Each structure stands twice: as structure tokens, then as C-alpha cells.
Amino acid sequence: MAQVHWFPGHMAKALRLIEEQIKIVDFVIECRDARAPFSTRNPALSYYIGEKRRLIVLTKKDLADPKETEKWVSELESEGHVVLVVDVIHDAIKKLMIEKTDIVLKDKRERDKRRGIRPRPARALIVGVPNVGKSSIINKIASRKAAGVENRPGVTQALKLIKVTDELELVDTPGVLWPKFETEEMGLHCALIGSVKETGYSLEYVTDYARDLLVGERPETLKDFYAIQTCDNLYEAIGLQRGILLEGGHVDVEKVRQTFLKDIQNGRLGRITWDHL
Ligand SMILES: Nc1nc2c(ncn2[C@@H]2O[C@H](COP(=O)(O)OP(=O)(O)O)[C@@H](O)[C@H]2O)c(=O)[nH]1
Ligand SMILES: [Mg+2]
Questions:
Q1: What's the pLDDT tens digit per position in 7-24?
Q2: Which atom of ligand 1 is nearest to the CA of 136?
Q3: Any domain includes 185
Q4: How far is residue 169's CA from residue 124's CA, in Å, rounded to a whole number?
Q5: Any bridge partners for residue 33, and if so which?
Q6: Position 195 pLDDT exceeds 70
Q7: CATH code for position 253
Q8: Closest C-alpha to ligand 1, atom 1
Q9: What gap in Å lies between CA 181 and CA 172, rounded to an integer?
Q10: Does residue 148 surpass a pLDDT of 80?
């Protein structure tokens, strides 16, 4: 039984907006979480992008397993994508983004030049599922100096452009995609990285899935982090160690699960990539 739900109604509306936003840009910057590069994509995007180029940005590299990230980059590049891997908070996003833009648009710029088309700033739209860092990227790139948010004639309020450099403009509102859970695992992975609202899945189901995996693969990490002797009866052990108890002294398993999930989402149990190639 699928325990993670998604909402076609919301997505349909979001995708209609993206359709409008994409019309005015030269390329799309698709953000995916490096911990789940497959589960945080939406295949409908390809349809809306059409012939336009795309830059895939894998965000939150600081939370993902570096070896797995390397594999993902090779895979995506072998499919012909231009890929950028970042820690949005700490990396020099603006510089990296401009370098990659040059690569993404190289052919187009050369073609324009041959045809005598006067160069104008490239326009890009940032898209991605919730929580992958879209707004963080926009806020960081739109430095105070460059934050001359313009309103172009014929462009609606939702489609303001931010000038990044003389060569690059960004649509100021990101396009929101909804993840498409083609398998149950994809839904679970989105829950484990915090891309699905808490009401969208059962806490029990998600945490048990993660517990089984982590107890199997990283028992020492769990023991060290929670200062427990054994991973048998994990929730019980965490609850007793942390004093997460109900009145009467029993462990509050629900609360332990919440703590466990937050620890996973925030990377406190190490750098974990959920989607494997
Ligand atoms: N550790 C880490 N956190 C990030 C990174 N990028 C964004 N975040 C955090 O992820 C959360 C969601 O980011 P936000 O920009 O609101 O995502 P959006 O929903 O796609 O717009 C925020 O708490 C950010 O601080 C990153 O590369 N590494
Ligand atoms: Mg946002």
C-alpha cells in the first residue's frame, strides 16, 4: 500500500505556471537534491522544456554521500546533461552558475553570432520540487547590488526578472514541481530528505524503512550518535537514553520517531544518499 501521497491538483496548477514561465526563458535550471537525484525529479518537466537546454543542479551535496554523488554526476553527464553539484549555503553559487551557463548556452551563442543576432542576457528559470534550495539559490545570486528586479513590459507580475550579470537574468520566482512517485521507494526517499509535508506520509512507515536500512548499513553510526549499546529495539533504546518518555515511564515511540526522522533529514546521522544507481 502506498503510504506517501501526492497531489495531482496542486501539481497541475504548478505545472501550468511553469509552462508560462518557461516560455520567456532560454534555459531551465533544474534543482534536485543530491541525496535523491532520481526521486526529486519530475519527468513532466522534459515535456515543458521541449528543445530548451537545461542545467541540472544537485543541491545539498554536504548532506549526500560524496561517492554516490560522483556516480550520479557521471550518469547524468553520460545522458548529455550539464551538471553542477553544490552546497548552496557555502559554495560560491553565483560564479559556478555563470560558468555552467556558458557551457549550457555555448552552441546557442555561437549560432546567434553566426546569424548576426545581437547578444542579450540569457534568461533562466529555476525549477524543482519543494525544499531543494530553489529560493536559497535565488536569494544568494540576487545580491543586493544586482537585485534590480525589473518588470518587463508584457511580462506578468509572476514573471519578474532579476539581473545577475550583464549576461544572465533569472526569473525571480522559482517554478515548483511536485515529485512524481513512480515507486513507493521514491516517495519514501522524498520524505527522508524532507521534500514531502509531514501529513503526506505515515511517520511510522517512513521511519521503519530508514531504521531497517541504517541498522543494516550503519549500526556504529547509530550507536555513537545516540550513545546506545545496541541497535536492537532502536526506538526503545533512543527513548530511554534521551528520556523521551510518556507519563508512567514508557518510551514515547512517536516522539522518538520524529526525532529520528529530523536527525536523518538534517544529516546528523551522516551523509546519506537514498537513491542508488
Ligand atoms: N545543508 C544544506 N541545506 C540547504 C542547501 N540548500 C538549501 N538548504 C536548506 O534547505 C531548506 C530549503 O531551502 P529553500 O531554498 O527554501 O528550498 P525551496 O523550497 O526549493 O525554495 C532551507 O532550510 C535551506 O537553508 C544546501 O546545499 N545544503
Ligand atoms: Mg522556495
A1: 566 667 777 888 888 998
A2: 15
A3: no
A4: 6
A5: 59
A6: yes
A7: 1.10.1580.10
A8: 60
A9: 28
A10: no
